[in-house]
Amino acid sequence: MLPGDYVIHTLIGHEGSISCVAFGSRALVTGSEDRTARVWDLATGLVVASLEGHEEMVTSVRMFEDAEVAKVIPGMVIWRVCLIVYVMCLL
What we know:
The protein is mostly beta strands. Helices cover about 0% and strands about 40% of the residues. Keywords: Repeat, WD repeat. InterPro entries: WD40/YVTN_repeat-like_dom_sf, WD40_repeat_CS, WD40_repeat_dom_sf, WD40_rpt.
């Protein structure tokens, strides 16, 4: 760490290495070798949702805070996590 840097939260939950990350204004999404994606609340550091059921490791995630932007793309799955967050994972 650099001088003046400090840890705000340590995110604990994945059982494998994290392979991808996406940031939003209030949340963080991580994809992992454990075949899950997780949505984290940036204010608390807690898991908001664990997105399970992927057959392979999650290699790409993208978060949308607008339903109009979250278009269906072949090879992707869209998760509606809550009223304002949608997560796209590469299958």
